[in-house]
Amino acid sequence: MNTRAKRLILPLGVAATAGLVGAALQAPAQAAGDTASDNLATSSIAAKNVVAYWLNQKAANLVNASPYETQVSAKHLSKGGPSADSKPGTVPAIGDEKKSGGTSKNVNLPRTTGKVFFRGADGRPHWCTATSVQARYRNLVATAGHCVYDTKSNKATLDRWVFIPGYYQGKAPWGIYVGKTAFTHYDFDVYEDGDRDYAFVTVYNGIKAGGGSNLRDTAEWDWKQVDKATYDKYDAHIRKAKAGKYYIIKFTDVGRLGDNVGGQGLAYNQKLGKYVYVFGYPSGSHPDGNHAFTGQTLKWSYGKTFAAKAPSVKAEELQGVKSSFTGEGSSGSAWLLQYKSARRLGYLNGVTSGVSDTDGNGRIDTSVSPYFDGELYGVYKAAASVWSGSIA
Questions:
Q1: 317 or 225, greater pLDDT
Q2: Are 160 and 46 in contact (CB under 8 A)?
Q3: Cα–Cα nearest to 299, from 321, 275, 323, 266
Q4: Which of 56, 153, 256, 342 could cross-link to 104 by cystine, CB 3.0-4.6 Å?
Q5: Where does the record locate the signal sequence feature (predicted)?
Q6: Is the CB of residue 295 less than 8 Å from the CB of residue 282?
Q7: Mind giving me the DSSP string for 324-368?
Q8: Is 352 exposed, middle or buried (0-12, 13-18, 19+ CB in 10 A)?
């Protein structure tokens, strides 16, 4: 895989457009070989050893993880924008296959959104935002491509990848979901195409190390006696030996991701000019030094999508939305179209790949995402039918 520069804060040009949202589910033509996939954790033992990295020393790596670093670029304006490559379509959210939700004036935060944690090329723990989406086996996570595929070294994927919906200060209310296989567009995997900066990751069933959600409470961990050969296969942080007997942590299977938190629908080839909610964990400062977000809690913004182009990256079809989300941590934030606050469900129609200060006043004012087109739908379809299973 080629080396690519991180690109979260970027110069941006915008051009407004308007249109209607299509509702028909139409599968566009998808050229063979457009989807690239890479394994993250290929066995139960490998997945448990990934969890061990995050549980080590009372979940120190989780608690001390930093938002994925960003790159600041000078302001530059230009025109550009996306166009649909086939008919518009939608995939319903989990639970909405035969339903339509009501309306609500309150903004209830989606249970589907959380943080993805991974070890970066610098050897340190980092995180981005991600969300659960509809899939045949209810096991699929969507995020930015650069939150899965390494953007600094030549290594194909970021290491020790896990998704924790609703994560907060060492707590995993719905368990830890270890990434199994990552799917992205071939052009991002090989050519670093910014129009394809998205990824779908299948995850194993969620697990817990004990009865509670607090990953730092080691007193709650359960242990299982095993033979020496089995003991030797596991990371030292999830095993112990005592009086000639060998033990490993007894993980509890908490079930499939989509069964626990739901899954957003998917919308693609939609005309621009419609409102979306953006849900994510922004962190870091604005260019003027104002530290507006901590990254500790899920935040939202609301705006109308428009065509955008960022000359600093290799991208021709981007969409933008006005948002004050700063760059660190907001990578992978979910753009939800037709979000029903009462049911906490909508249609995923973007994932934040960058942010920009478009008027040069020192404050981030715009988030951008790859335009969700038929090529994205093809990658999604390849990932959405892949089984992952349990590791407990």
A1: 225
A2: no
A3: 323
A4: 342
A5: 1-23
A6: yes
A7: ---SBTTTT-EEEEEEETTTTEEEEEEE--EEE-SSSSSS--EEE
A8: buried
DSSP string across 135-187? -TTS-EEEE-GGGTB-SSSS-SB-EEEEEEET-BTTB-TT-BEEEEEEEEEHH
H or E element that contains 50: helix 44-64
CA distance 203 to 201: 6
| 8 CA to centre of own chain | 14
DSSP code, position 314: S
Which SS3 state, helix, strand or coil, does residue 294 take? strand
Q: How far apart are CA 176 and CA 182, in angstroms?
A: 17
Helix (H, G, I), strand (E, B) or coil at 114: strand
Q: What is the pLDDT of residue 207?
A: 94
Out of 3.50.50.60, 2.40.10.120, 2.40.10.270, 2.30.180.10, which CATH number does the structure's domain 13-384 have?
Answer: 2.40.10.120
What residue ranges do the domains of the chain occupy?
13-384
Taking CA atoms, 133 is separated from 32, 151, 270, 305, 336, in Å, by 24, 24, 18, 21, 11
* Buried-exposed string 39-49: b where 16+ CB fall within 10 A, e elsewhere: ebbeeeebbbb
The predicted model gives 355-360 an average pLDDT of 87
- Contact indicator for 26, 369 with CB cutoff of 8 Å: no
The first and second tokens of residue 42, run together, are 């290929």
Residue 106 confidence (pLDDT) above 80: no
Residue positions counted in the chain? 392
The C-alpha atoms of residue 93 and residue 11 are separated, in whole angstroms, by 34
Token duo for residue 238: 């999830």
Q: Look at residue 151 in the predicted model and tell me its pLDDT.
A: 67
pLDDT category at 99 given cuts 50, 70, 90 is: low
Contacts of 301 (CB under 8 A, 6+ apart): 277, 278, 321, 322, 323, 324, 325, 367
